[in-house]
Amino acid sequence: MHEDGQYERYAGGTPESERLLVERLVRDLMRVQTKIKKRSGATALARTFHAKAVLGVENARLTIHDELPDDLRTGFVRPGAEYPVTVRLSNASGASQPDSTPDLRGVALRIQAGSDEAHDLLMTSFPVSHARNAHEFVAFAKAMAGADSMPRKAFALFVKLPLAVGRPTAARMRRNVRAGSRREVRSLALETYWSRGAVLWGDAGPVRYQLRPAGGAPSAPSPSRSRNDPDRLRSELAQRLGAANIVFELCVQRYVDSRRTPIEDGAVEWKESDTPVIRVATLTIPRQDVDTATARAAALRVEQLAFNPWNTTEEFRPLGNLNRARKAAYEASSALRQGHRFLTEEPRRNVVLGIPLRAGFRALNRFVPWHRLPTRLSLLNLVALRQALRRDNLIDTEIPEAPPKTQTVPEPVDERLRVARSYDGTYNDLSAPKMGAVGATFGRNLPPVYRPDQFDSPNPVTVSKQLLHRDAFLPARSLNVLAAAWIQFQVHDWVNHQRYPVGTKSVEVPLPPGSTWRNTPGGPPEKVMRFAENKGVHAPGSLGPPALFADTASHWWDGSEVYGNDRQLAMSLREPDGGAALRLEEGHLPLGPNGLPLTGFNESWWLGLSVMQTLFAREHNAVCEELRQAHPQMDQDRVYHTARLVVSALIAKIHTIDWTPAILATEALEIALTTNWQGPPKNWLTQLGMWLIEAQALTGIPKSLPDQYGVPYSLTEDFVTVYRMHPLIPDDFEIVDHRFGHRIDTLGFRDVQGAAAEPLMRKTGLANSLYSLGIANPGAIKLHNFPRALQEFERDGEVIDLSVVDLVRTRRRGVPRYNDFRSGLHKSRIRRFEDVSSDKETVARLKDVYRSVDDIDTMVGLFAENPPEGFGFSDTAFRIFILMATRRLRSDRFLTVDFRPEVYTPLGMDWIEHNNMTSVLLRHCPELASFVPRTASVFVPWRPILPTRNNSGAGRG
């Protein structure tokens, strides 16, 4: 044991530093895996190492010896105990090659010690590794990848390897490889196999283990007799097992000291003269015919297994850098091989050309912003900007596993989850089931700036009154209120921070002198504003309030606002007895006891949300009906989940090519967003530009492979911040009859929200509600335009000023203030208040409220910024958008690799291809056909009908 009482030392000095190094090495190993496949011409990926199986059996037995030292009797290792074992014997190379080729050999055992306890032991037929640590191991693998001939092997060993690790290390590695592989192997039953590195063995401390043939095993025939048989080792084992059992002894060697039996150096042999071998158990592979259908099926199942030395318990935890790296490496290799994880390589031309492209546009943008460039040049500028944002502005906040922990053998993926979205967002990424699921933490696009001393400075109530309060409604004349309803409809699918119950844990905001606030309906005036605190996630070792927060919605684009994000809720929204359709009452959402509709998410409910939720519930049912007719053999559960896939993808398409071009109305953005979904325009110049700069964009995201860009997918706190678009909501609404143009009623926001929304919806009807919102303008996303109704808003038994809540939440979640925010997104810092806005009144108020430009709140700066022409929000906010818009699509398995007819059905693919928001709306309200724009998005203002004098004739105008 080392002087500090620990057996292990971490590369980089800490477990976290080593984890980051291992992540890079794992990506390199995945590249090795794909390179081997490409060079070999194989149709599928093989294991990175030990690709060719020689034998796979499920019926071996491990019997623990009775004569066992007391300190080795730990965990499942109990004298006389017997366990079933799965065995895989293999050649060590990452390429499948004839058994006569010089190579090491390996064995993998899975000891089933109980229904939920297994132990994987992995060994190779040489007592030491060619590599001291994970870095050398990966360097060797990279050098040898694809070296399938003697000249290539020589070049790899004598040129590429020394360049990677240095000449002395390369020489030592070559010696070990030659020593291990030059011996001719007659039978894998007669080989001895050693563990790569040490494992903990309970209180006995570290050991290395080995598997050696038991005495009395019959010899093998001379290899010369079967030299022409590429599978001679398998043939020999088949013949041997046809006659008798194959028996091995499992043994261990104890740790002595860091010199003779090092933990962190896998290239040093633990010599038996220093640490004698101790017999622990006997492994018996019973006599059998391995060529029967039953045996072949068992071998096929063994070949699908993913062995990992970390599939064990803490008593038998693997030790040393090589072993610690193996957990991530084996998981990644297995996931890649099984099609659970993907590696997208950027073409070399894109890498090379991207560097000067980004540098050139960086220099150009100091004088001319991207949106003032000619269209094609601005598109290239956006590509360069997005590449820079992907490189610098994706930050993982999930609490990492460092150092690695042991685990139970992962359960096989439920086959139903391969073709259906889970209720809670798990298993979208099959290699990381919890990625993006309910409860996953929000990521970051910028490093958090967590300043508790600045939470109330300047006073957020003062900020709201001076800069956000709506004195007069400022309309966004290029949009209609459906655009406002749509984005809230989407946000409810994406993000929802969990709050403590009202009255249990609150944020208290001091009010300016002389001010009071009623924190509950009818409550007493108080000198503080109080609202429910968010529930945070404490990182290990962190002090003070948490700076991480979990999403109670899934991060995926999965329609959870319609379907719910847990199984119980989702099932309750379906027709009785497991029907595929969603429950509706005469076309409307059913009501709960509190007057709110029963749907996937009904918080902050108002007429606009009712319109969207009702429309897409009906759309789901329409898809179900078509699926039943096209596939009468399909069961109701499959119909439901397929319809959900179709509707969720259609929602993503609508947001991408309908809503976003409406709110960011420029030619460059329309082309860019259409390219996201269906690839670039069919002209040679644009396609050549994409081929040279970002080839991944040539097909459109739905035809690509998932790509997380090196950071597990999640939505971010910064994303939440830029989607604070409450100014879109008007304070009053005119309800109009679409047939005659007559006003039905004029209502304030309080009259169309909460429990009042559904009675109004049923009375007015979906068509009139859509028409009323379609002809009206939302508010502009600017300062001095926050809805008055939301500044005194009743929610869950509390009264809140939502503008103050938005400011406070952003500060307390560590989102950087505006100047740091824009700087972190590759925009120049502002030096004067006049740089924020060209409006003199706004500048004066900013100077009154803030001490310096560095203190300006993020939301205030985003609202104050003069947006590019045609934009509904600021260029700074847009930078988060351009990064995350493609990421939300590209990360999602169901919008990339599994966006295909086999999953969606041909009907489903056709439905998504040929529909948009206009067709969805007109399918359910065909009477609105004459009002929606002919050649533009339904999110721009509709043609209003002039009131008629004779109101008896529908359709007259």
Automatic annotation (TrEMBL):
One of its GO terms (molecular function) is oxidoreductase activity, acting on single donors with incorporation of molecular oxygen, incorporation of two atoms of oxygen. Coiled coil: none annotated. Its EC number is 1.11.1.6. Residues 63-340 form the Catalase core domain. Keywords: Dioxygenase, Fatty acid biosynthesis, Fatty acid metabolism, Heme, Iron, Lipid biosynthesis, Lipid metabolism, Metal-binding, Oxidoreductase, Oxylipin biosynthesis, Peroxidase, Plant defense. Residues 212-225 have a biased composition (Low complexity). It is an enzyme of class 1 (oxidoreductase). Pfam families: An_peroxidase (PF03098), Catalase (PF00199). Its cofactor is Ca(2+). This is Catalase. The lineage of its organism: Bacteria, Bacillati, Actinomycetota, Actinomycetes, Kitasatosporales.
